[in-house]
C-alpha cells in the first residue's frame, strides 16, 4: 500500500541523490540499493522536520497529518519489524488524534489507514494483524467518501490492493469482485498516475485477463511520457525504477498469456 511522494526540500533531494550515486560509484552498491538508501535518508529527514513542526503546534491539522504521513514513509522503509511498528504506532496516535477532532479530514483517515497497514505488516502473521485489516478497510473507505482524489486516488487505489491481496471471507476482507471494482475506479479517477494502471494490469494478468491487461497497458503507454515530465525529481526516482521494472514484467506476461493467433 505504498504512497510515492515526500515533502523534502529540493536541495536535500539533490544532495541525497548525489550521495546515492557516490555510494554506487565508490562502494559498488547496486543502483536500486543506492536509491533505497537515499529514500531512507530523505524519509528520516522529513520525519524529523514533520515531528518538530507537529510538536510546535499539535492542534494544527496540517501538522498532524503531515507527521502521520512521515511516520508511514519511514515505516515503509524501515529495515526491521520493531522499528516499523514503532513508527506506525506514532502515526496511528497522530491520526487518531486528528480524526477525533476533525472527523472529516480525508488526509487524517487516509494516513491512519496507511499506518494501520504498516503495523499489520510488522505484526504479521498474527491474529492482531488480521484484526487490523478491518481498521485499514474502514479508514480507507472513510477517506474515499471524503476525498477520493486524494494522493492520486490513493484511498481508492489502496482499497483495491487490499481486496486483491487479503484472503477472502471468512478469513479476511479480500475478493476478486471488490478488487476489480476499486482498481478500475482508481485507474479512472487518476489515469495519469502510473501506479493505478500498473496495479490494474497486474491484477488482470493474475486473473488471466490478457486482453483487458493489454488495453490497460496501451493506456499506460500513452500517459507514460507526460507522467515522466510531471512526476520528476529525486523524490520520484525510486518510484520510476519500480514502475519501469513492473511495466516490463507486465508486458512480458501479457505476451505470454495472449492467445496464439491461427493462420
Please tell me about this protein's structure.
This protein has helices at residues 10-27, 31-56, 61-76, 81-101, 106-123, 127-147, 150-165, 176-189, 194-206, 210-230, 237-257. The protein contains 11 helices and no strands. Mean pLDDT is 88; it is low at 1-28. It has a domain at 20-147: Alpha Horseshoe (Serine Threonine Protein Phosphatase 5, Tetratricopeptide repeat), CATH 1.25.40. Helix 1 (10-27) packs antiparallel against helix 2 (31-56), helix 5 runs antiparallel to helix 6 (127-147) and helix 8 (176-189) runs antiparallel to helix 9. The relative contact order is 0.09. By secondary structure, the chain is an all-alpha fold.
Strands, helices and their partners?
Blueprint lengths: L9 H18 L3 H26 L4 H16 L4 H21 L4 H18 L3 H21 L2 H16 L10 H14 L4 H13 L3 H21 L6 H21 L6
Helix pairs in contact: 1-2, 2-3, 3-4, 3-5, 4-5, 5-6, 6-7, 7-8, 8-9, 9-10, 9-11, 10-11
Amino acid at each position: 500500500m505504498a504512497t510515492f511522494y515526500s515533502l523534502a526540500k529540493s536541495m536535500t533531494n539533490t544532495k541525497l541523490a548525489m550521495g546515492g550515486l557516490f555510494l554506487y560509484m565508490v562502494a559498488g552498491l547496486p543502483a536500486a540499493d543506492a536509491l533505497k538508501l537515499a529514500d531512507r535518508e530523505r524519509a528520516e529527514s522529513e520525519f524529523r522536520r514533520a515531528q518538530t513542526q507537529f510538536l510546535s503546534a499539535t492542534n494544527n491539522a496540517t501538522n498532524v497529518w503531515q507527521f502521520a504521513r512521515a511516520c508511514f514513509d519511514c515505516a515503509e522503509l524501515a529495515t526491521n519489524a520493531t522499528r516499523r511498528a514503532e513508527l506506525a504506532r506514532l502515526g496511528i496516535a497522530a491520526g487518531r488524534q486528528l480524526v477525533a477532532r476533525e472527523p472529516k479530514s480525508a488526509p487524517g483517515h487516509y494516513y491512519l489507514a496507511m499506518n494501520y497497514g504498516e503495523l499489520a505488516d510488522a505484526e504479521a502473521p498474527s491474529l492482531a494483524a488480521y484484526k487490523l485489516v478491518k481498521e485499514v478497510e474502514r479508514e480507507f473507505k472513510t477517506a474515499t467518501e471524503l476525498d477520493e482524489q486524494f494522493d492520486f486516488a490513493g484511498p481508492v487505489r489502496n482499497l483495491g490492493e487490499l481486496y486483491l491481496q487479503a484472503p477472502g471471507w471468512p478469513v479476511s476482507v479480500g475478493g476478486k469482485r471488490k478488487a476489480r471494482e476499486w482498481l478500475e475506479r482508481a485507474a479512472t479517477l487518476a489515469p495519469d498516475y502510473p501506479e493505478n494502471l500498473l496495479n490494474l494490469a497486474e491484477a488482470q494478468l493474475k486473473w488471466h485477463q490478457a486482453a483487458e491487461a493489454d488495453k490497460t497497458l496501451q493506456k499506460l503507454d500513452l500517459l507514460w511520457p507526460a507522467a515522466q515530465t510531471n512526476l520528476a525529481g529525486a523524490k520520484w526516482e525510486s518510484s520510476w525504477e519500480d514502475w519501469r521494472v513492473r511495466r516490463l514484467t507486465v508486458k512480458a506476461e501479457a505476451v505470454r498469456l495472449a492467445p496464439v493467433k491461427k493462420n
